[in-house]
């Protein structure tokens, strides 16, 4: 929801709050894909040897990941091929494959799986990549995602983001849930649930914590929760509204928006809630701060020019320079990991849509064709943007490639889903 709506939300019924691990996992997200990349790489993926012993077929997960990305044309080998199977490279070239993925699974004495994989270049008749990893059965999907990440990186030159996670808020009846899932919508876990609204989740750079705004105290308060231990703490509970948390890249501080002195302004605060510093002192509403990728700047939303526009200032405050000039209403700035692209929601002709601005050239591109978009979030490799939209009058998540060609829609069977944030690369 927009900055104005977030500030105006009032609390609903008081309720208890439960943490991750005390509630069952919920149904995974349903993913629909449309469109393909401007260039598709043909890849043959064989069934892995003995993969029927794993909870989910590793080769199927790899196929799904690469297909969903829009940048690969999958060629089914129709056969099992392990990393030791002799390969006739000319045959695969004739079938149109530029690369071939093979592998196997073995059971280790301690119950773990020994997963081996190899990526072959059929054009050069050589091995491009490969590795072996011992994984517990519960991590089968993660291992498959990591193999897909390696294939994506070796064939495109860009790091894959299949093994990353997303967080979002689902509303079902009177219950709000902060949920965490794999990037493909599987493996859903509930981090928090409440009968009060939860908004504005934001991942820390190390992927262990999420900051968010909860209304459980009948007002907006900024919390930080450790996703590993479930421990949570208040980092901003001042008079008025406490909103819009955003992490510094080093994880030491949060940029937040507070109305403690009247109009909402930008502050920074230590991740433990200490050392509050005021960064803006304008006669306008300043909110929705976002650190730049290098941590040196903060992008934020302000109506100081008459309507909401996006500005940039030093991370220590000071003079702000306007960044968006097209359209009279631009909100929710998000900066790409390489610092080159600004994503935001723009209202034009009554539609709220996702736009991306190349900061060097000033060229702007509309990326969505829906009309009620909000909360954009870049994938950690910068190739995709996830955002909230509506599908059949219910909240849904969507993903679009930064060139606008590949689109995904993520929905749940019951309830609204909103406020997405894409997590970082995991160590």
TrEMBL record:
Signal peptide residue numbers: 1-27
Query: Where is this protein localized, as stated in its record?
Result: Periplasm
What SUPFAM superfamilies does this protein map onto?
TolB, N-terminal domain (SSF52964), Tricorn protease N-terminal domain (SSF69304)
Classification via InterPro entries: 6-blade_b-propeller_TolB-like, Tol-Pal_TolB, TolB_N, WD40
Where is it found, in Gene Ontology cellular component terms? periplasmic space
Residues annotated as domain TolB N-terminal: 29-126
Quick one: a GO biological-process term for this protein? Answer: cell division
Q: Spell out the NCBIfam families in the cross-references.
A: propeller_TolB
HAMAP family named in the record: TolB (MF_00671)
Q: How does it assemble?
A: The Tol-Pal system is composed of five core proteins: the inner membrane proteins TolA, TolQ and TolR, the periplasmic protein TolB and the outer membrane protein Pal. They form a network linking the inner and outer membranes and the peptidoglycan layer.
Q: Which family does it belong to?
A: Belongs to the TolB family.
Q: What task does this protein carry out?
A: Part of the Tol-Pal system, which plays a role in outer membrane invagination during cell division and is important for maintaining outer membrane integrity.
Protein name as annotated: Tol-Pal system protein TolB
